[in-house]
Amino acid sequence: MAGKTLVRTIQRAKRLAGEIIVPGDKSISHRGAILGSIASGISKISNYSPGKDCLSTLNCLKSLGIRIIRKASVVHVYGVGLNGYKEAEDVLDAGNSGTTMRLLSGVLAAQPFLSVISGDASLRARPMKRLITPLQLMGAKIYGRNDNSLAPLVIKGNKLHGITYPLPVPSAQIKSAILLAGLFASGKTTVAQKEMSRDHTERLLKQMGVNVESGSSYTSVTPMVKPLNSLNLFVPGDISSAAYWLVAGSIHPNANIKIVNCGVNPTRTGIIDVLLAMGARIKLENQRLECNEPVADLYVESSELKAVEIKGSVIPRLIDEIPVLAVAACSARGTTIIRDAGELRAKESDRIATTVRELTRLGARIEALSDGMVINGGSSLVGTEVESHSDHRLAMSLAIAGLITQGKTNILQPQAVGISYPDFWETLERLAR
DSSP string spanning 254-295? Predict the structure, then answer.
């Protein structure tokens, strides 16, 4: 595999084999840093995600007066308590990170100063009304452009009160923003949800001494009357990053891959459940709890996949993995249907449109639905030029497809992988033999 700055060339691999460690989980890294900043004392976060998104969170926290020391993958966050943030001198830059913007907004809504938070062109085009509406109901003075629907966001801290809020669509980011605001509010704050979404925020809050009540359809917090405990957190490997290797090992005819220390939180393992339903040969071993998060070593080897229907409650548990699941479906027998995934249209790219467009270029028989896609498996993929659309998950999905194509696959804008997985290309070269 050879590469240039703006093009990466992938060829069909003869074999995929090896043991890998995926980057620290993005979601947990974001949350650990933000929660550590409002705790009492110094929080140590090991195996912090190296992706650009998580660095955006650290940079925003620094702008708010938080002392952060980062050495390799270990981050020390010097907490200032619930009311220790300082007003930033400039616009807070969340880069490409929706998690940074949304979760920090929940904290900033209660701070006694003005904040402006923005990001790159992609983030400024992503929906923010779903964040602004519940925070305004709590008493926040938060505004966005285009009738409070888009960033940049302007937040003037205010006294907040608890609410009970039914989430219109499952979203761990919006749920977490409301719960974080609830730490500062008077009275109980409850988020009701029809489908389970990732629960990393709740797990960390419990570990830090917060009174969290949760059930299958709701999560509640009560305001803090004492400081949050600091964290000593080891971040498990990111299941969303592991997903590429799980699919690669499943669809390649000569593959045997081991992924060690990977997070297997049940709100995130939809990718494993679906691949197993498709016939993938995946094993979980050495299952354990680390810092209240389930962790395991994953083994995957060459498999014969069959089509499935992917919809309903599993969608929030694998929303980020749908582009690479579409690649798996291209190799499966039969027709795979993905529904209830309209949220994909509001990601870094319109992931329904871009996934369909680029896999079609490779020869896949795939069509878009308003809330998903239909993939007719069994077609041989043929290498050609494809584009990442500056979307890290699409870039990596196309690379996995390239491992089984006839001829070369040239991926434009491959540097997008740096958003979540800077070492992706090096790992790919090490596995492909």
Answer: SEEEEEEEEE--TTTTHHHHHHHHTT-EEEEEEEEEETTEEE
* CA–CA separation, 193 and 170 (whole Å): 6
Q: What is the largest CA-CA distance in the chain?
A: 63
CA dihedral sign of residues 424, 430, 431, 433: positive
Residues 103-149 have pLDDT tens digits of 999 999 999 999 999 999 999 999 999 999 999 999 999 999 999 99
The DSSP output letter for 401 is: H
Provide the whole-model pTM.
0.92
Angle between helices 424-431 and 239-251 (to 10 degrees): 30
93 is a catalytic site residue: no
Map 41-92 to HEC letters: EEEEEECCCCCHHHHHHHHHHHHCCCEEEEECCEEEEEEECCCCCCCCCCCE
CB 269 within 8 A of CB 244: no
Query: Could you report the per-residue pLDDT of 52-72, keeping only the tens digit for each?
Result: 999 999 999 999 999 999 999
What's the pLDDT tens digit per position in 253-309?
Answer: 999 999 999 999 999 999 999 999 999 999 999 999 988 899 999 999 999 999 999
Q: Choose the catalytic residue: 25, 199, 297, 320.
A: 320
The pLDDT-based confidence of 324 (bands split at 50, 70, 90) is very high
- Cα distances from 89 to residues 64, 105, 113, 116, in angstroms, run 8, 17, 11, 10
Strands of the sheet with 409-412, listed across from one edge: 7-10, 409-412, 385-387
